Every structure is written in structure tokens, then in C-alpha cells.
């Protein structure tokens, strides 16, 4: 079975709201904090408070952190996550969220991704919100994340750069290809952190997917709203692999194809669901080896799980190369466009495949008095 989480963003979403929803749905606070303590940052605490918003009960995640005055770059954040030795899926998800944030900020401010400076999002509280949400999803055993149509506000909001339109440019960029609707509410319903969590974690958008519901919860925002409850809901349940994969992708787009991986068959004949991934491929016969090598490096740098080439004979006996990349479903459209940009190919094909990663356990040994990771 595949465990699916669905965020109902009827009042938008923020980082603390997503974390609060997971805690309200049963993610153990002590286990989430234990994972967060692996981060090489200090001076923070996480508390969960039961609150009411618009007559509905929810959990407010409070990150207690003193401003440290550090403006962190994306490279700094990526190093912190790598040094933390987080559980594999927690680390992958958190890295993907921050990478998308960095790419968005780079586009908006015309800076290379590695040199992007995070202001609000680089604070300790935002780091705890993002990594904490990824950790909470892991404690709930969530394999796939989906979300409803995302609501945003209107008017203007204040940020480190000054006054910005609402929704902010970062939110608009992060939610491209997602279904979004604006409300005539002069409040930042969806924050860049919340939008980045959706962009980095969601494989699809739409109504509540078919599942056997296991648990649900509400995460509360800071203020009370007159127009609607300031909450985001999460629903967690079990779905078959075919249900989890059908329609997975950005709503309103053709991503990815409806054909899912064939999966495997267990000893008793039952279907075995693996981790759904996107396999992207392009046939190339008109570019140099240097360009192909650069494309492979660019794909890996942009978050592909793996990228490789194979030499083939194409039509009319021409020698050619098949460029392949393996990626998480939410990264598929972005890497598809990257292949087109780097190679000039006339098209990219995609297949949803199943992967069964084998269990592994990081450890540490001492070699000549020095610690070595294994």
C-alpha cells in the first residue's frame, strides 16, 4: 500500500500551519524534535498548542527561536541539511524544498542559485518549519503528498525587501502549474514557505484522492480571520499504487502520463507497490559529447536522482545517444524543461516507473583515530 497525504488549502498554507497539521494528525512531537535535533543549529525549541480558529480545533506549531542575525545562502542551508544526516527521505524532501526556493529567488533577483540569500526563509524558525514538516510526514509514513486548489490573498504584504504584492512574487513562481484561486482577503494566506512545501512535495493537485482514511488534522495560522477559519487540513490514508499514481502531477498540465509503472508481484500473487518515480528520456544525434556531459551534470545538479547516457543506432544508421534521468514526480516538469533547454531536443518522453530502494543504515567507524561515515 502507498500512504498518501492530502493538504486541504482552503485558507492557504504556511510552514508552521503544515507542521501543525501533521502534529494534529498524530505525528509524535518527540520523534519530530529528535530528528530536528540532528540539525547543526541551536537556540530553538518546538511546541504544539491546541487552539481554536473559526470554531474549529487545530494545533499551532510554535517555533521558539531567537533571531541570530545570520543571512544564510542556499549553499549554507544545503550544507546544514547534508551535515545533519537526516533520514534519507526527510533529507531528500527538505533539500528539494530549499532548492526550489533558491531557484525561485534566483529568477526573481537575477542571482545564481548557489548565491541566493534567504532572508525570512533562512531563519531558524523557517528551517525548523520545513525540516519539521518533512520529518513529521516521515513519522506518519507518508509516501506521496497531494494538495487541493491553493487559496491566496490580495493587497500588499511586508517583507525584508519592503512592500510586495500579495500573493508575493515567490509564491506565484513556486505555484506555477498548480491550481490557485485568490480571495478578496488582505492577508498573506499562502506564504513562500508554504508554497515551497507544496511545490517540493506534491505529486498532484485536486480533490481528496481515493484512499482509506487513517487520520486527519488541522494546522493553525497565527491570527483569527473573519472570512474563514485560518487552518490547513491534512488527510492521511492508504491508497493502492495505481490510485496514488493516477493523475499524479501538476493539475491543468499533461504531467505525468496516466500510465503507471507495472510494479511487481509478490509470492502470493498480490501487486507490490514501489516508490513511483519519473524516467525522462531524449534521443540525441546532433550535439557534441561535451554538451551531453554538461546536460548530465546539469540534471544531477538540479535534483535528478540519477542521470546517464547510452549509445544507440538511430534511423538511417546514425549513431546517437539516449539521455536518461530518474526523478521524483514533482521534479519531472522542471527537469523535462531543463533537458529541452540544455540539448535543444525536439521532445522528451516520460514513463512512471516503480523503484524499490533497499533498506540501508548509515553508521560511523573510526579509522586511524578519525571518524568515517559508512
Task: Write the topology of this structure.
Elements: E1 2-8, H1 15-24, H2 29-36, E2 44-53, E3 56-65, H3 74-84, H4 88-109, H5 124-139, E4 144-147, E5 150-152, E6 156-159, E7 162-165, H6 169-174, E8 180-182, H7 192-201, E9 202-205, E10 212-220, E11 231-239, H8 241-245, E12 264-265, E13 271-272, E14 275-284, H9 289-301, E15 306-313, E16 319-328, H10 332-343, E17 349-355, E18 364-367, E19 370-373
Parallel strand pairs: 1-4, 4-9, 5-8
Antiparallel strand pairs: 1-11, 2-3, 6-7, 10-11, 12-13, 14-16, 14-17, 15-16, 18-19
Helix pairs in contact: 1-5, 1-7, 2-5, 3-4, 4-5, 4-7, 9-10
Q: Output the number of helix runs.
A: 10
Mean pLDDT over the residues: 86
Helix-strand string: EHHEEHHHEEEEHEHEEEHEEEHEEHEEE
Q: Calculate Rg over CA atoms.
A: 21 Å
Q: Per DSSP, what share of the residues sits in E-state strands of 2 or more residues?
A: 25-35%
Structural class: alpha+beta
The low-confidence runs, each spanning 5 or more residues with pLDDT under 50, are 241-253, 259-272
Helical percent range?
A: 25-40%
Spatial gap, N to C terminus: 31 Å
Overall body shape: globular
Number of domains: 2
Largest sheet: 5 strands, mixed
In what order do the strands lie side by side in the largest sheet? Answer: 9-4-1-11-10
The total count of strands amounts to 19
